[in-house]
Amino acid sequence: MKLDSKAKNKQTSKRHIPLIGTLLACLLIAVLTILSSDSDPNQPYGKIISPIAETTTSTTVSVTAETRNIEPGQYIWLVVDKPGINLCWPKIQIEPDTKFKTIIYEEGKKEPYTLSLYVVHKTINDQWQEWLGDEMFGGLPILPEKRRLDSVRLILGK
Fold first, then answer.
1. Is the pLDDT of residue 155 over 50?
2. Which of 86, 100, 106, 120 has the least CB density, counted as fewest CB within 10 Å?
3. 64 and 100 in contact (C-beta within 8 Å)?
């Protein structure tokens, strides 16, 4: 039995309907995933651009990073964390809502450390400013994870 051209076109279009439906369902899922994600474009954002994770550094570390959406009364700091001993060493306060380059100095054992970008409130900022001003050498307690905007694990070794 031969099908005429109209019947062939109907069969062909019926085969495309499930494909189009599947594509639309995938598109809908993708859009809903994006819309329901926790990333709020107005939340504080920070990113350490360089050095990249797992880089072996000398005691002089060139850092490039950026921050945005930092609310008034919040302060940005570059900090060296030592998670194994739960201590940190504030290095420098950074101007918020900028892309910046700076140099930090890290001495100590030739071992891994974490360079973190923190957003803190005035009380912590004042404590860290005082700690730097008094040229303290002992570390301070690491802040809660929710204060960390970004971090990279580095290795002191050069």
1. yes
2. 86
3. yes
Beta carbons within 8 Å of 106's beta carbon, 6+ residues apart: 57, 59, 61, 80, 91, 113, 156
Distances (CA, A) of 115 to 17, 36, 65, 121, 151: 53, 31, 11, 19, 5
The structure's pTM equals 0.73
The Cα–Cα gap between 110 and 80 comes to 14
Return the half-sphere exposure (C-beta side, CA atoms, 13 A cut-off) of residue 138: 2
Please tell me what DSSP assigns to residue 39: -
Cα distance between residue 117 and residue 82, in whole Å:
14
Residue 55 sits at the vertex; the CA angle it makes with 52 and 61, to the nearest 5 degrees, is 85
pLDDT in tens, 123-134: 999 999 999 998
